[in-house]
Amino acid sequence: CRTALESGFSPVFLVLSDPDESYGKIPPGVTALTNSRHAEGMGTSLALAAAAVADSEAKALLVMLADQPAVTTGLLHRLIQLLDEPRTTIVLSDGGDRQGPPACFARCHFHEIAQLSGDQGGKSIAAAHGSGVALLVAPESVWDIDHESAWLAYCQQAL
């Protein structure tokens, strides 16, 4: 959330499966959304965020994961810049062995994203719009910390 705020993006939403999981550390300027359907899959979290941002004047939905510590404001700005390219409506980060978040989706995709369910994520939207998808080489996006071993590897690499 802090990286998104430092990048100047607004509004910033944080999707939680349980409002207590934030431990009261939600930065000012961030709106927490509780996904009561989180057990159904990540698509429901994306759908909730897209519905929330649709009521704003945002030109894009920037999807970030809380467990990607190497993502910087510079990376986020590069994603947004690519979205300004002609015919580009989706930008995915390319971490080498995976493509995905952080990712940007132009406003024209908000309705599609709001319809996601189950384990469908942004990649399913991107697959349906191949010619409008751009990839941003972003090796820092590969660090998705889901386990302690991944955190230790990241810390070792960061030294």
Nearest-integer average pLDDT: 83
- Strands, count: 6
Gyration radius from CA atoms, angstroms:
15 Å
Proportion of strand residues: 15-25%
Q: Which class best fits the helix and strand makeup?
A: alpha/beta
Walk me through this protein's architecture:
It is a single chain. By secondary structure, the chain is an alpha/beta fold. It has helices at residues 2-6, 42-54, 73-83, 110-114, 122-128, 148-158; strands at 12-16, 30-34, 60-63, 90-94, 99-106, 133-137. Strands 3-5-4-6 form a four-stranded mixed beta sheet, sandwiched between helices. A two-stranded parallel ribbon has the order 1-2. The two termini are 24 Å apart. The model has no long low-confidence stretch (mean pLDDT 83).
